[in-house]
Design brief:
This protein is of the alpha+beta class and about 400 residues long. It has 16 helices and 12 strands. Bound molecules: zinc ion (ZN) (2 copies).
């Protein structure tokens, strides 16, 4: 082991600035082979350790539990390593290729899983076909080969496993203590691909977009739901079109001191700024109360902005009016530059189209807009940075 460590120390001590591109490229290829070879040896020892039941002697309930504790592997990774180590002990050709650094751990794991799911007679021939493929493809493509092969060699088993994967589909959307929602689940191949196709259509970055890819996907999922609700094509629920209800006290909308906060269905209290934004172009149903929850305006779900006014806005604005944004009218809210709760009129001169992201910037994000609704709009961030239309 000390020889291995000193070899690594030698690499670590090298000054990279002094290396040519060709040397760097060769080192990358060589080190990858070394990592795969070390992984093979690690798995070989793991299989022996597991077969002896040595984890129990070390006081662990299973080899995977011992790995988690000793090698600090995540539960899923530890279980996978143990399964792959056991399978590889039965697949000497695959183990030898990994030991030689000709295939990677990921390749070996795929071959081990695929052959273990096949009838015993097919496992041998399948291993040689998959090894041949593994030398030429990356793991993503090898996964496709394993699926095709399973359908050819064991169609009933492959269909059954696909059915099992489908049966394990699930989605949890749960509100957590701070008012956010946690989303977790797993989808079958077709469901996942359908969702990704819809999300990617809605999550491409815009000019000057500072959102992370994960934030863009989150926005796209909400956008998908908003559009479905706004399109009115969802089935009715309890005799009503599905919608989100926001309950807000008039004093909160008027931003009077001491006003109570607003509430959103399922999620609980929201800030007055958020309530103002939602009420700005009520695509949600509003329940406005006066004082001790005396309803003033219950469930008026017609948009404050009429369909005709909305069409006129679409013709005039064409896209979200925030400088540099190109979201089309169908994806926007009609923003009252002076809120109707403050007496602002629902007129073309007081309305502009803003996409959900930029509508949020203006209400909750501290940006201010200036300029004529019919002319150019500039946006100023709280710290004074100014964005002008391109
Ligand atoms: Zn607004
Ligand atoms: Zn926008």
């Amino acid at each position: 082991m000390s020889g291995l460590m000193s070899a690594i120390d030698e690499y670590a001590g090298a000054d990279l600035d002094g290396l040519s591109d060709a040397t760097l490229a060769a080192d990358l290829a060589d080190l990858r082979v070394a990592i795969d070879r070390a992984e093979a040896e690690w798995l070989r020892r793991l299989a022996a350790f597991d077969a002896r039941g040595a984890a129990a002697a070390e006081g662990a309930v299973s080899t995977a539990a011992w790995l988690r504790r000793t090698c600090r592997l995540a539960p899923g990774a530890a279980r996978e390593r143990v399964v792959v180590a056991r399978e590889l002990a039965e697949l000497p050709a695959t183990a030898a290729e990994l030991a030689a650094g000709d295939i990677s751990y990921r390749h070996a794991a795929l071959i081990a899983t695929a052959t273990s799911e096949l009838p015993a007679d097919d496992a041998g021939p399948a291993e040689s076909i998959l090894l041949e493929a593994a030398r030429r493809t990356d793991p993503a493509d090898l996964r496709k080969v394993t699926t095709h092969l399973a359908y050819v060699l064991d169609p009933d088993g492959a269909r059954r496993r696909e059915e099992e994967r489908y049966e394990s589909r699930r989605l949890f959307v749960s509100s957590i203590l701070d008012g956010r929602f946690a989303v977790d689940g797993s989808l079958d191949a077709e469901g996942g691909a359908t969702l990704l196709a819809a999300l990617s259509a809605l999550s491409s970055p815009r000019a000057g977009d500072e959102r992370t890819p994960a934030q863009r996907r989150a926005d796209a999922l909400v956008e998908l739901a908003r559009r479905s609700l706004a399109g009115g094509e969802l089935p009715e629920l309890g005799g009503e079109r599905p919608h989100v209800t926001v309950t807000v006290d008039l004093t909160a909308l008027e931003r009077r001191p001491g006003a109570s906060s607003a509430e959103l269905d399922w999620s609980g209290p929201i800030s007055a700024e958020t309530a103002l934004r939602i009420a700005c172009d009520a695509g949600v149903s509003r329940v406005i109360t006066a004082g001790a929850s005396e309803p003033l305006d219950v469930g008026r779900r017609t948009r404050v902005v009429s369909a005709g006014m909305r069409r006129a806005l679409a013709v005039r604005d064409k896209v979200c009016r925030f400088p540099g944004c190109d979201r089309p009218p169908a994806w926007t809210d009609a923003h009252h530059r002076r809120h109707w709760a403050d007496g602002g009129p629902t007129s073309l001169a007081n309305l502009i189209l803003l996409c959900p992201t930029h509508h949020r910037c203006v209400h909750e994000g501290g940006w201010t807009l200036s300029g004529d609704a019919n002319g150019l709009i500039t946006a100023t961030r709280a710290d004074g940075m100014v964005l002008r239309p391109p």
